[in-house]
Amino acid sequence: MIMDDKNAEAGGTDEVASLKRRAGLLSRRSFLAGSAASVGALGLAGCATSDGMSLAEASRLYGPVPDEKFPIPAIDVSKVDPKYFRRTVRYDTKEEPGTIIVDPGNYYVYRIEEDGNATRYGANVGRDGFRWSGEAYVGRKGEWATWTPPREMIKRQPEAAKWARGMPGGLENPLGARTLYLYQNGAYTLYTIYASLDAESIGNGITSGCVGLLTQDMLHLYDRTPVKTKVVVLPA
């Protein structure tokens, strides 16, 4: 799970291992990935995925976001199964437009749109033993939030002690660029929907119950999601 800046435990990947992996990804690729996306747009223009989106289109969709407080690098789309690329799909539901539906069994998040459609995003979800289902709502939102590991995590993973007073927001912060905090009956559930730069996490169960979207997808969802938005998590 990812918790807030009071007692946060991030997105449930083996948390510190995730920090190290993410730091490695950034140190190796950083904005070189943005250049790779541009090259890909030229060299892969004729290569379509099984869902009909060319890899060039995917490279543009998940390209760098330089105007952020911390400029966001491109996602290496070659590391993502094409079925998890963002797209509009038909989705039959009685839920109102704007509702977020999490389908952990298939690693998708849906935002319900008008006329029987939904925007579908690929996701990472809770690992075995940490998945949950039910209804919640977005109680608050955060941009580049501070992450503070709880005492329980520090005891379990002593290397996290360096962040006992909080890790400032940034590219290496497990909370990511944007966070939706899930509440029930006025109380924070300790679960979130958060932004991830780890392309290889999408389509996998790695968290302690939180749900991660690729950062570019999370920016897209976050901007369209007000506080009090209903969230439905389906059984896995």
Automatic annotation (TrEMBL):
One GO cellular component term: extracellular region
Pfam family, one: YkuD
Source species, domain of life: Bacteria
Keywords: Cell shape, Cell wall biogenesis/degradation, Glycosyltransferase, Hydrolase, Lipoprotein, Peptidoglycan synthesis, Transferase
Annotated pathway: Cell wall biogenesis; peptidoglycan biosynthesis
L,D-TPase catalytic domain: residues covered: 98-234
GO biological process, one term: regulation of cell shape
GO molecular function: glycosyltransferase activity; peptidoglycan L,D-transpeptidase activity
PANTHER family associated with the record: L,D-TRANSPEPTIDASE (PTHR30582), L,D-TRANSPEPTIDASE ERFK_SRFK-RELATED (PTHR30582:SF24)
Homology family: Belongs to the YkuD family.
Protein name: Lipoprotein-anchoring transpeptidase ErfK/SrfK
